[in-house]
Structure formats: C-alpha cells, structure tokens
Amino acid sequence: MDRYAVIGQPIAHSRSPAIHAQFARQTDQVLSYEAIEIAPDALPARLQALHAAGYRGLNVTLPHKVAVMALCETVSGRAQRAGAVNTLIRTDQGWHGDNTDGEGFIRDLQRLGFGVAGRRVLVLGAGGAVRGILEPLLAAAPAELVVSNRNPWKPEALAEAFKPLGTIVPRTHLSLKGDRYDLVVNATAAGHSGRMAALPGPLLARGGDCYDLSYGAAFAPFRAWSEAQGAARIADGLGMLVGQAAAAFEAWRGVVPDRLDAVIARLRE
Ligand code: ATR
C-alpha cells in the first residue's frame, strides 16, 4: 500500500490524517497516512529513512517547514518564494519540496465566494504565513494589496521580494487610519495569545469580507473584531487547511478531492 505521513513536533493533534483518510474514501484511493513525530535535530536522518522505507509523500508542519527546504533534492518556485515547504513528493533521487498553502488559501476564498479581483485587500501581519499567500493573492488581481504590520520593515522587505510578481503596498497598522478595504485577511499570530492586533478605527468597506488564516480558539479575537466592523461574511482558516491538503493529495495521486465542504463539516463536528 502507498504510504504517506505528516511530520512535525508536536504532531498528536494534527488533523491531516483525518483529512487525507476522507479524501482517500471520497476518491476510492487505497493508501495509508500516518502522523510521525520528528525532533528538529533528527530531521535529516529521518527524512532519508522515510525515503528509503518507500514513503510516497509527506506533509510538513511546525517546526520543520523552513528547515526541510535545505534537505530537498529540488524545490518548486512557489515554495522558494514562500520560503517554506509543506509538501514533499517522492522522486527516485530524494524529495521534491512544494508549498500548497497559498493554493489552499485561494481555493478556500473561491469556495466561500470571497472575491479578490478588483477589490482592495488588506493583509494583517508580515511573517512566514503571509509569505505563503502573497503569490496567489497577486495573481488574483486585487485593485490594491496592502500588507500591514506593527513595524514597517517586514512589509517593506516583502514588497521588495515580491516586486517581480506585482505591487504590494507596505504599511504599518497605525498608518491605516481612515482607509477602507473590501477583504481583510488576518495573518498575525496575535490570536494564538488571545489578542487582536491593535488597529486604528474602522477599516472595512460596506459589504467587506474578513478571513483568518487560523482556526479554533485562535480565531476568536479576529472574529469579534470582524463582527464589530460589520463584516458581510467572516471565515476561519479551517477551509485553507483542507485546501492545502487537497492540493497535496492531487500532487501525489493525480486525483482532485472535490467535496471539501463535507470534509470541513466533519472537522467542525
Ligand atoms: P507565522 O508563521 O504565523 O506568520 P511569524 O513569522 O512569527 O509567524 O509572524 C507573526 C506575525 O504576527 C508578525 O507579523 C507579527 O508582527 P511583528 O512582526 O510586529 O512581530 C504578528 N504578531 C504577533 N503577535 C502580534 C500581536 N500581539 N499584535 C500584532 N501583531 C502580532
């Protein structure tokens, strides 16, 4: 049987095995998918061992997404631009690294009907998670793409790095005062400590949508902010998690899992 796994530390609470098991059922694919805990210092040896053992593909989660890049035989352009790898595909020589996070994000916006084309888009935060969504966001042709952070340096560096792909306007949160956006994407880590980034007054245009890359308890502060802004629609990042998994499954199996709503609903139960 073809074997797959997600690697990380900690890994016990990963949703990936449940997601891929449902994809396999939906598409009549016979495969196994495990969660494997790997400590950072063991990563090079364990990756080699998993290749030698015949694994067909791996998903990569914290804390290995950046470190694994240097251990790949080849890395896709989008993973290089994202600065991280979340999917490994077996080749005869070793592992090919890819990043499906941005594709999962855009697929989820499409599923939800949150438009990007011609709209003013604000991304809050400028860390690793943001790097992964900028390429597909630019490709979706927003009227304007603003990346905002507490300090200006990280957004400025991102604007510079992505210049060949399009225009990103770097801002600080405080400088946004008086602006209005049609789509606000929260990609700060503030929710993980129960907080919302400090923002200056109303920022959402009438009919605007709000999307958080995180889900679960970390989503609560941004949800409360979005409600107070009068958002037309608000979504967490559970659909992005399922979307990035679907893109990995497609790369491995050549089959597209297309009933993502059912998988997301099961995860919410
Ligand atoms: P990730 O991989 O989740 O993107 P990261 O690379 O550490 O994690 O980036 C975290 C992002 O959340 C940064 O943009 C960070 O802002 P700073 O660069 O100013 O630190 C942002 N962030 C974290 N805690 C925050 C808070 N309490 N308020 C606002 N922004 C916060």
From TrEMBL:
Q: Describe the location of the Shikimate dehydrogenase substrate binding N-terminal domain by residue ranges.
A: 6-88
Q: Which InterPro entries match?
A: Aminoacid_DH-like_N_sf, NAD(P)-bd_dom_sf, SDH_C, Shikimate_DH, Shikimate_DH-bd_N, Shikimate_DH_fam, Shikm_DH/Glu-tRNA_Rdtase
Pfam families the UniProt entry points to: SDH_C, Shikimate_DH, Shikimate_dh_N
Looking at the record, the residues that make up the Quinate/shikimate 5-dehydrogenase/glutamyl-tRNA reductase domain are 116-191
Task: Name the positions where shikimate binds.
Answer: 14-16, 61, 86, 101, 215, 244
In alphabetical order, the GO MF annotations are: NADP binding; shikimate 3-dehydrogenase (NADP+) activity
Q: Which GO terms describe its biological process?
A: amino acid biosynthetic process; aromatic amino acid family biosynthetic process; chorismate biosynthetic process; shikimate metabolic process
Enzyme Commission no: 1.1.1.25
What pathway annotation does it carry? Metabolic intermediate biosynthesis; chorismate biosynthesis; chorismate from D-erythrose 4-phosphate and phosphoenolpyruvate: step 4/7
Catalytic activity reported: shikimate + NADP(+) = 3-dehydroshikimate + NADPH + H(+)
Report residues binding NADP(+).
Answer: 125-129, 213, 237
- Does this UniProt record's set of keywords contain DNA-binding? no
* Transmembrane regions: none
What do we know about how this protein assembles, alone or with others?
Answer: Homodimer.
HAMAP family attached to this UniProt entry: Shikimate_DH_AroE (MF_00222)
Provide the function of this protein: Involved in the biosynthesis of the chorismate, which leads to the biosynthesis of aromatic amino acids. Catalyzes the reversible NADPH linked reduction of 3-dehydroshikimate (DHSA) to yield shikimate (SA).
The UniProt entry, under NCBIfam families, shows: aroE (TIGR00507), PRK00258.1-2 (NF001310)
Mind telling me what this protein is named? Shikimate dehydrogenase (NADP(+))
